[in-house]
């Protein structure tokens, strides 16, 4: 009779010792390679692009003492003066709690001012102060350089198509 151990012998796996060039670690593809490139999922690629843009924007605005969420709040308040905190949160894709912290800090720094809503006194409306307008202008100059970089290889037709596509995605998926 054959013993169980003899019947179930497995070939021994021979592992070579890793060389300095091959430490056995899996190589993570760089942005633009493999699933981080043209073969990647669209949702992932959008998120990857967003992360790269946000990091670059954070670096560009750092010495002004402005974060990209603060820039988004300043931008929306400039475009739509008198927004409530809830409206700002929706437009900037931030939580109401985060917007609360941001508006307190911007108000403390003199960049925005709160006024009560003329009809609904409990609703606080936020607007930019002259200091906020100047700060946004300084930020916007830097962000425009980034936007130029994003569009540098696009002709106007391609840029319009991409803008329409991105806006269409947001509008279409908003309904879900």
Structural class: mainly alpha
- Strand share of the residues? 5-15%
Summarize the biggest pleated sheet.
Answer: 2 strands, antiparallel
Order of H and E elements: HHHHHEEHH
Q: Uncertain spans, ≥5 residues at pLDDT below 50? A: 1-11
Q: From the structure provided, what is the oligomeric state, counting identical versus distinct chains?
A: single chain
Tally of helical segments: 7
- Biggest sheet: strand arrangement: 1-2
First-last Cα distance: 66 Å
In which range does the helix fraction lie?
A: 55-70%
Global morphology: globular
Count of DSSP strands: 2
The rounded Rg comes to 26 Å
Mean pLDDT: 88
Notes on the protein architecture:
This protein has 176 residues and is mainly α. Strands 1-2 form a two-stranded antiparallel ribbon. Strand 1 and strand 2 form a beta hairpin. It starts with a helix and ends with a helix. 14% of the residues are buried. The N terminus is likely disordered.
Task: Describe the secondary structure blueprint for this structure.
Layout (H helix, E strand, L loop, with lengths): L3 H4 L34 H20 L6 H12 L5 H8 L3 H13 L3 E5 L7 E5 L1 H22 L4 H19 L2
Antiparallel strand pairs: 1-2
Helix pairs in contact: 2-6, 3-4, 3-6, 4-5
In short:
The chain is mainly alpha-helical and 176 residues long. It is built from seven helices and two strands; from the N terminus they run αααααββαα.
